[in-house]
Amino acid sequence: MTAMIQQETQPDNPVFEQSQIMSSIARKQCQVSEIIELRKSYLADDLRNDDMMRIDEKLDEMSIHVGYYHDKRLVGAIRFSDPVSDFTYLNRLNFYQYAVNMPDRFLEVSRFFIVPGYRRYCVNLLFDTCDLMRKETQYGYYLALAQNHYTKIYRKLGTTVLYSGIKLRNKDSEYCISLGKF
After folding, report:
1. What H or E segment, with its residue span, contains residue 109?
2. CB under 8 Å to 99, separation ≥6 — which residues?
3. Within 13 Å and on the Cβ side, how many CA atoms surround 15?
4. What is the pTM of this model?
C-alpha cells in the first residue's frame, strides 16, 4: 500500500483515472498567469524569442484559456483566440484572405500542452474541452494549425484537415490546418 501512495505522488508516473482531471475556463487573471508560466517550460526554443513572447502576451490577453487540473494542480492547458486579432498564427500567415466557406463563430487553437505524465489522456481532455466550449461559449468551431504528426489526434476528434503539407519559414516540419466542431 505504501508503494502505491508513493507512486501516486510521482508527477512523471501518476496513478489516477482520467475522470479525476478537471477542465475549466480560466476566469481569473491568476489562473491565466499560472497557465502562462507553466506553458513557458514546454515551449520549443524557437518560440521563446522576444518577438514570439510579445505576440503570445497580446494573444493571451484576448484569448480564452482552458486549464486541466488534477487535485487542483495545473497539468496542462489550451488557448483559443478570436481570428479577428492580427496576432493569431493563421492571420499572420494570411490564411483568412484565401480561406473560403469558413463557418461563422470559430476560434483558433494554439499553445496546447500537457505535462508528460498526463499525455495519454490528451484526446479525452480535448473531447472534454470541446464539450466545455460548446456549453460555455457562443463559438461552434475551431481551427488548429499543427505539425502534420498531430493530425492523428485531431482526426480522433472528428476534425477535417483543410490543408496539409504546409511549410513554414524557418521550420523543418510540415504543418496542417484542421477544422473541428465544438
Report:
1. strand 106-114
2. 162
3. 9
4. 0.84
Among 78, 85, 96, 87, residue whose Cα is nearest residue 146: 78
More confident residue, 139 or 17: 139
Chain segment 78-129, per-residue pLDDT in tens: 999 998 888 888 888 888 777 777 888 899 999 999 999 999 999 999 999 9
Strand order in the sheet with 21-25: 21-25, 64-70, 73-81, 106-114, 141-147, 174-181, 160-167
Return d(Cα 77, Cα 41) in angstroms, integer: 13
Average pLDDT over residues 33-57: 83
- 159, with CB counted inside 10 A (0-12, 13-18, 19+), is buried
Q: What is the mean pLDDT of residues 17-40?
A: 92
Alpha carbons within 13 angstroms on the beta-carbon side of residue 134 total 10
Helix ranges (DSSP H) in the chain:
2-9, 29-40, 50-61, 89-92, 95-98, 122-136, 151-156
Residues 107/101, Cβ–Cβ less than 8 Å: no
Supply the angle between the helices 29-40 and 50-61 in degrees, to the nearest 10.
150
Rounded Cα distance between 158 and 152, Å, is 10
Indicate the burial class of 138 (C-beta count within 10 angstroms; 0-12, 13-18, 19 or more): exposed
CB-based contact 79:40 (threshold 8 Å): no
Instruction: Kindly report the average pLDDT of the chain as a whole number.
Output: 85
